[in-house]
Amino acid sequence: MASQSRRGKSGGGDDGILARVSSTVSESQIVNYGKQVASDATFVTKKLLKSTGKAAWIAGTTFLILVVPLIVEMDREQMLNELEMQQASLLGAPPTPLK
């Protein structure tokens, strides 16, 4: 019986020390500062990702509206020039250099 009471007291004493150390560490200014820095870093990262997504959307839609039609038109023009050159060569006319 005496050994049981000693184990109960020593086990409870260790939990008390661990609880005190844990609460002391969690209330530390360094820990609070670290939490604040992590919170600020998370906020900045979220804001950066959101603005990067918006910029990517703007760049993508601008590319589709302005650049893709230009590429298609340039390809059509080149195909038309090649067709004219083929027709001229079939008819026997000397090919004219493109300007």
Automatic annotation (TrEMBL):
Transmembrane segments: 55-72
Any Pfam family: Tom22
Major localization listed first in the record, in broad terms: mitochondrion
GO BP terms: intracellular protein transport
Subcellular localization: Mitochondrion outer membrane
CC terms in the record's Gene Ontology section: mitochondrial outer membrane
Keywords: Membrane, Mitochondrion, Mitochondrion outer membrane, Protein transport, Receptor, Translocation, Transmembrane, Transmembrane helix, Transport
Its membrane topology: Single-pass membrane protein
Family, similarity comment: Belongs to the Tom22 family.
Listed PANTHER family: MITOCHONDRIAL IMPORT RECEPTOR SUBUNIT TOM9-2 (PTHR46867)
Protein's name according to its UniProt entry: Uncharacterized protein
Natural source organism: Protea cynaroides
